[in-house]
Write a structure and sequence with these properties.
Elements lengths: L16 H9 L5 H16 L6 H26 L6 H30 L12 H20 L7 H17 L18 H12 L8 H13 L5 E3 L8 E4 L7 E2 L11 E5 L2 H16 L14 H15 L11 E11 L1 H8 L11 H5 L1 E10 L2 E6 L12 E6 L6 E10 L5 E9 L3 E7 L13 E5 L9 E6 L10 E5 L2 E13 L4 E10 L2
Antiparallel strand pairs: 1-4, 2-3, 2-4, 5-6, 5-8, 6-7, 7-10, 8-9, 9-10, 11-12, 11-14, 12-13, 13-16, 14-15, 15-16
Helix pairs in contact: 2-3, 2-4, 3-4, 4-5, 5-6, 5-7, 8-10, 9-10
């Protein structure tokens, strides 16, 4: 075939190999600036036609290799920066752009090969590596979008399907390949593909960003143990269509199909292995020495994430405790333990009489659906920078005089960047209480004199027990308390802790007697 166009000189500063090497060598030492320049050159290369495929691949690989250290460093900075919005956004944007552009560069090489473009023969032996790196980049794009709760671009699902289908068709889906120059450990197109599918199938919308990071690292540990089948199979609860540009979905019994483009995925041996490691972690407080998550993680944090993964990888999906029905109700919201308890401590909960500070803490959301367990609500794209999974909210439904309490359990962004959230209801109506240590106050008391709390149960149960929402890290198994509520005082003793987070504690107490 005539390729007269292959000899046309490419009008690009990096067309010459010496110049591209100079650019890489002269990259700034500053991580942000260096990655910014790499992103600029990747975008420029991807949008310039005329490169031979072998030269295009050389450029993408040069820049990819130069970026690795900077990308790793910024990724480690991201979670600790969550409360510094400007810097957090700067890191997130750099990561998202880098992985999108480097992935597009590798995908473009495969598309050029499929079109028999100039230089196709020269990259033939490199196809397994190119596809593996493309799939790795797509998996990272998915992760960084999940850290912001989406939405996930349909292009990612389309490219994942096309790249993996190409690897299968060429017979190298299982071939072990290095994903970075000089890397000792390898991967494969299959492993990178199935890692992305398992991450997408594990309900990341109900995890905090630091938990999503930990889940992604945990999922990567067991890549070779996941099942991937061409037909419905036991142990493969999720299905993915290579050509439909959609996320994987849970197989619903007899609905399973056997179309040639469908792939079925599941945890396989990883399910039992994580269960075993979870037992070790809970018993010994540390992971086995040969297991590394690439960072120093609190044992409780790891255990929480692994329980979550096991729940969503189970053959039996988690079920809602009650049915949802559509509503169109206005919700008045206050967030955080301190703001909520201060609001309820106001002399009047009539908004006309509330203090300015209390009014400033209020927001208005719209509930789309409701169940006995809580609400599905829409929060506009602008404002509410505090909103994240796990935050405590006080809720007053339009027309109701009482305040209830809930926790944001799920969050995803739609195409307009509005946040669609799931709120678990802790109580339909709460009562403000004051908690004090029984006996002499000492430095060891987590609860101080007249600390605020919220009574979540309208009356004691048959065992004279109630649930109380407290400030974070204040529940103690050995600390008896006095509870003042509506002019009465009760001696209460701790029974058990139901939930403990950085935002609140929820505990059960037994009422022993009412004080005179």
């Amino acid at each position: 075939m005539l390729r007269w166009f292959a000899t046309v000189k490419v009008d690009h500063p990096l067309a010459d190999g010496k110049e591209s090497r100079r650019v890489v060598q002269d990259l700034p030492k500053d991580t942000h600036k260096a990655l910014g320049e790499i992103i600029f050159w990747l975008d420029s290369i991807n949008t310039t036609a005329g490169f031979r495929l072998d030269r295009r691949l050389e450029l993408v690989e040069e820049l990819d290799q130069a970026a690795k250290l900077h990308v790793r460093k910024l990724a480690q900075e991201y979670v600790p920066l969550r409360q510094q919005k400007f810097h957090e956004n700067r890191v997130w944007t750099a990561q998202a752009q880098y992985w999108r552009l480097v992935g597009a560069g590798y995908v473009q090489c495969i598309e050029g090969y499929q079109a028999d473009g100039p230089g196709a023969g020269a990259i033939k032996q490199r196809l397994p590596v190119i596809v593996g790196r493309a799939l790795q980049a797509l998996g990272q794009q998915l992760k960084w979008l999940l850290l912001r709760y989406g939405p996930i671009d349909d292009r990612i699902w389309g490219d994942l399907g096309r790249m993996y289908a190409f690897a299968e068709a060429k017979g190298f889906a299982d071939a072990m390949i290095p994903l970075a120059e000089g890397a000792l450990a390898g991967s494969s197109a299959r492993n990178e593909f199935v890692k992305a599918l398992m991450l997408a199938s594990s309900s990341m919308e109900s995890l905090l960003p630091q938990q999503i990071e930990l889940a992604e690292r945990s999922i990567a540990l067991f890549a070779s143990r996941y099942l991937l089948r061409n037909a419905p199979s036991a142990g493969c609860p999720y299905a993915y269509d290579l050509v439909m540009r959609r996320p994987p979905t849970r197989v619903q019994g007899a609905v399973a199909e056997s179309a040639s483009s469908l792939r079925y995925v599941g945890p396989g041996e990883a399910y039992a292995e994580i269960g075993r490691l979870l037992d070790v972690l809970l018993t010994e407080g540390v992971l086995p020495s040969d297991m590394s998550l690439g960072g120093d993680y609190d044992a409780r944090a790891v255990a929480d994430v692994w329980r979550h993964l096991l729940q969503y990888w189970s053959p039996t999906p988690p079920e809602r405790s009650s049915a949802r029905h559509p509503v169109n109700a206005r919700l008045t919201i206050v967030h955080g333990f301190r703001s909520f308890t201060e609001l309820l401590a106001e002399p009047s909960q009539d908004t006309v009489r509330m203090s300015i500070s209390a009014l400033q803490a209020l927001e208005s959301w719209v509930a789309e659906n409701e169940s006995d367990g809580g609400f599905g609500a829409v929060v506009p794209a602008t404002g509410s920078d505090w909103l994240q999974v796990g935050v405590l909210v006080g809720i007053k439904v339009q027309g109701d005089s009482r305040w209830g309490a809930g926790v944001v359990r799920r969050m995803v962004r739609d195409g307009e960047q509005n946040r669609r959230i799931g709120i678990q209801r802790l109580a339909r109506a709460v009562v403000s209480v004051q908690l004090s240590p029984s006996g002499i106050l000492t430095a060891g008391n987590a609860v101080r004199h007249n600390d605020p709390g919220l009574l979540l149960t309208p009356k004691p149960d048959g065992e004279h027990q109630v649930q109380i929402l407290m400030a974070p890290a204040t529940f103690s198994e050995g600390q008896a308390l006095t509870m003042q509520v509506r002019g009465q005082a009760f001696d209460i003793e701790p029974v058990r802790l139901l939930e403990s987070t950085d935002a609140y504690d929820v505990a059960v107490f037994a009422i022993k007697r009412r004080r005179a």
